UniProtKB/TrEMBL annotation:
It catalyses: a (3S)-3-hydroxyacyl-CoA + NAD(+) = a 3-oxoacyl-CoA + NADH + H(+). Keywords: NAD, Oxidoreductase. It holds the Pfam family 3HCDH. The keyword Cytoplasm does not apply. The lineage of its organism: Bacteria, Thermotogati, Deinococcota, Deinococci, Deinococcales. It comes from Deinococcus rufus. Residues 191-289, 360-403 form the 3-hydroxyacyl-CoA dehydrogenase C-terminal domain. This is 3-hydroxyacyl-CoA dehydrogenase NAD-binding domain-containing protein.
Length: 781
């Protein structure tokens, strides 16, 4: 059942985006759609879908070149080509008759080993394949992606009663490993998991808003990040999804579910859809509307549900939200659940609805509690699922509140009350939908599961830890805000190196499972020391930083970096020096120091020069090939270029061809561990290079000439010129006329440190750092 070729039928928004994600994973895809009678090009719809995916923002392709893996076609001329596909997915119109008609055609041409799937978000899977052969039904499994498929982690895999369990298992493994999805196995019931519970929550929040007399903007403040949920919260999510889609899904679920599952939309919501035709982002207006102010800046207007007019309400303040600012998530959730006044009443109503409904759905939409939690986290952007949130509040507290409201407890909560258990998850234990103890089955190798065993943490600091990954591999893990690099992070790597040598470990992984690998250096600390004229201390800090980053290459044991998300500045420099990199496909990596008036000081400038000069072709004159390498490094660093994926990071030179890209972020630590174990036998400690060719004054002159033109043309500012000249000096190897000079890595590191400190002492750089810290945006001074 290995999937090496795929076919997607339906080149609409979802179909084309799913085809793009398959191409991102390196899977050749046949994309088919109908033939339009008024179009000369019979493949017009499929080609249009590919072009739409190429233009999509956020980008559907990790590398535009991957679009070449998609072959456009049509259902009349190319139906027989389905015989080569190992997986066939339909993403056509949501009409049962149309899907049944399609499957009748596919059955005649698909090979007998192909897995067949539907991306339907609402039509039950078993209804689609009625009348098909038993063999076809055994190979059929639902595959419900969430939009956009590249960025939303969730994939609901929905077997029917006829689906062969081996098909479900094989497809789930492919989806998780090759496509990088978070797989939730859902039962073939209305709404499956995420939409069933998520849409219920949206509908009920609207009803509670009316009762509490709150506005949509106030509700979004209460049900967004403060509660550990997505920035889009409730009403912004509705606008993004489309109010007509919410109406359609809620209506269908209301018809298909029992009377106590209330999916009734409020009168105001129905007015927006049925009378006003204000459907959210797709029509330009919904609960919110974007407009341009007199200053040309975009403003967000809020809908007044009494007048149906838009108002500029400014920054909406909510007392319950302000009261918990700065607190960790668990403390915020507990405080909000216990809050007083109409805001507290609203939150308890919404949260109790969600708790009651999730418990009622356990065993109905899915057979594992963690699948329900994961569906809401991966599909709706929650930090905690409903059962995890009940654990935070206290399960018995929730039960008491539900009973006080006169609710009948679902069987799961009744069992929890009888057992007296205070949480659904405890160590490696959880419960079944009927409340019986069972073992928690983690979806993958993840650090949070390791931490359940305290003995796995070998050494701990406030902002970093050293963790035993098993099999003789240590992990230097950072866990500070944005994983900004400070003393704890550097010392954790030093701690880990020492432990590897002293205790006989095989090697080291540098990684973590925060939101980002590392956003770079601790700028507030650097700025405060510069303003206090602590230059000897800063010089020592930069030396130490260089020693730690380069230690990833020059240690007597293998080191593997596992970057993901934001990997900027110093985070990128750590990555560049590892023996091997296992990168998440969603990697946003760059040397961005020029944005704050600095250059990379931890070996990043040196490393990019070394990499690009090593690419020169033997036999050519040094100057002829070296200048393009210098210019390439200068452009990459001088423009603070950040990759939009690991594939682009490889094209830019941040990753080597030998480095590994993992589609699933949650696999990178396990893959990195395997790489350490593969490198360990016979590992020979590398030695620093002393043969790096540099051009001296010739390179400086060439770069300065280009900079002069850019400055005269207004493309760079006066201070951009100052920073760029320091960068040019490092990349040239310093001043000197010898075009064939060879220098050491340490020579370039010394130049880096000198340039970094020189710039840090200038007023222009300090202004840039201060502005970045205050606004989060670069200053063009």
């Amino acid at each position: 059942m290995k999937i090496q070729k795929a076919a997607v039928i339906g080149a609409g928004v979802m179909g084309a985006a799913i085809a793009a994600q398959l191409a991102n994973a390196g899977i050749p895809v046949l994309l088919l759609d109908i033939v339009l009678p008024d179009q000369q090009d019979r493949n017009f719809l499929a080609k249009s879908g590919i072009q739409r995916a190429l233009k999509a923002r956020p980008a559907a392709f990790m590398d535009p070149a991957r679009a070449a893996l998609i072959t456009p076609g049509n259902l009349e001329d190319d139906l027989k080509a389905l015989k080569d596909a190992d997986w066939i997915l339909e993403a056509i119109i949501e009409k049962l008759d149309a899907k049944r008609e399609l499957w009748a055609k596919v059955e005649k041409v698909a090979k007998k080993t192909a897995i067949i799937s539907s991306n339907s978000s609402g039509i039950p899977m078993h209804l689609q394949i009625e009348g098909r052969a038993e063999d076809f039904q055994r190979r059929f499994v639902g595959a419900h992606f969430f939009n956009p498929p590249r960025y939303l982690h969730l994939l609901e895999v929905i077997p029917t009663p006829k689906t062969d369990p081996k098909v479900t298992q094989a497809f789930s493994e492919f989806a998780e490993t090759t496509l990088g999805k978070g797989v939730v196995v859902a039962n073939d019931v209305p709404g499956f998991v995420a939409n069933r519970i998520g849409v219920y929550g949206i509908v009920r929040a609207m009803q509670h808003m009316d009762r509490a007399g709150l506005t949509p903007a106030q509700v979004d403040q209460l049900t967004g990040p403060v509660l550990g949920r997505a920035n889009s919260a409730t009403f912004r999510t509705a606008d993004l999804s489309g109010l007509d889609i919410i109406t359609h899904v809620a209506s269908d679920l209301g018809k298909a579910t029992p009377d106590d599952e209330d999916f009734t939309l409020t009168p105001a919501f129905r007015t927006l859809v049925e009378e006003k035709k204000m459907l959210g982002d797709k029509t330009g207006s919904g609960f919110y509307k974007k407009t341009k102010g007199p200053d040309g800046k975009t403003k967000i207007l809020n809908l007044n549900l009494e007048t149906f007019e838009y108002e500029d309400q400014g920054k909406v303040k909510v007392a319950a939200v302000d009261a918990v600012k700065g607190q960790p998530l668990a403390a915020r959730v507990k405080a909000l659940y216990a809050a007083e006044g109409r805001e507290g009443d609203f939150l308890r109503g919404v949260m109790n609805d969600g708790f009651w409904y999730a418990a009622k759905m356990a065993g109905n939409v899915s057979n594992r509690l963690q699948d329900i939690d994961n569906a809401l986290k991966w599909g709706f952007g929650w930090e905690q699922g409903p059962f995890e949130t009940m654990d935070t509040v206290g399960v018995q507290t929730v039960i008491a509140n539900l009973e006080a409201e006169g609710r009948t407890l679902p069987p799961l909560l009744a069992a929890m009350k009888a057992s007296g258990r205070e949480s659904f998850y405890s160590g490696d234990q959880t419960v079944t939908p009927t409340g019986e103890p069972t073992t928690y089955q983690a979806p993958y190798f993840i650090l949070t599961d390791l931490k359940k065993d305290a003995t796995k943490v070998v050494k701990k600091r406030a902002g970093a830890s050293v963790v035993d990954l098993g099999d003789g591999v240590l992990l230097a893990e950072w866990h500070a805000k944005m994983n900004a690099l400070g003393e704890d992070q550097l010392r954790s790597v030093q701690d880990a190196h020492k432990l590897v040598q002293d205790m006989g470990y095989a090697g080291l992984v540098v990684g973590n499972q925060g939101e980002n690998f590392s956003a770079g250096a601790n700028l507030p600390l650097i700025l405060s020391q510069a303003q206090a004229d602590e230059w000897d201390e800063l010089d020592d800090i930069i030396k130490q930083f260089q020693q730690v980053t380069t230690s990833l290459r020059f240690s007597p044991h293998p080191t593997v970096a596992a970057p993901f998300g934001l990997t900027l500045g110093g985070g990128a420099e750590f990555t560049l020096h590892a023996d091997h990199v296992v990168a998440s496909a969603e990697l946003y990596m760059g040397l961005v120091e020029v944005g704050v008036g600095l250059i990379p000081g931890g070996g990043g400038t040196k490393e990019m020069l070394l990499r690009f000069t090593d690419m020169q072709q033997p036999g050519q004159q040094l100057g002829a090939t070296l200048l393009p390498a210098v210019q390439r490094a200068f452009e990459l660093i001088g423009t603070a270029k950040v990759s939009t994926s690991a594939l682009e990071a490889r094209n830019l030179g941040f990753l080597r061809d030998t480095d590994t890209v993992a589609m699933n972020k949650n696999h990178i630590l396990q893959d990195a561990k395997r790489q350490v174990l593969a490198l360990a036998p016979g590992y020979v400690q590398p030695v620093p290079r002393h043969d790096i060719p540099v051009m001296g004054d010739a390179a400086i002159a060439a770069i300065k000439s280009a900079l002069y033109g850019m400055h005269q043309g207004g493309y760079i500012t006066d201070y951009d010129l100052v920073v760029s000249e320091q960068l040019a000096r490092v990349l040239s190897g310093g001043t000197g006329n010898n075009r064939t000079a060879k220098v050491s890595e340490q020579h370039l590191l010394d130049l880096e440190r000198e340039a970094f400190l020189t710039l840090l002492g200038k007023k222009g750089t300090q202004q840039r750092i201060d502005h970045m810290l205050k606004t989060g945006k670069p200053l063009r001074n």
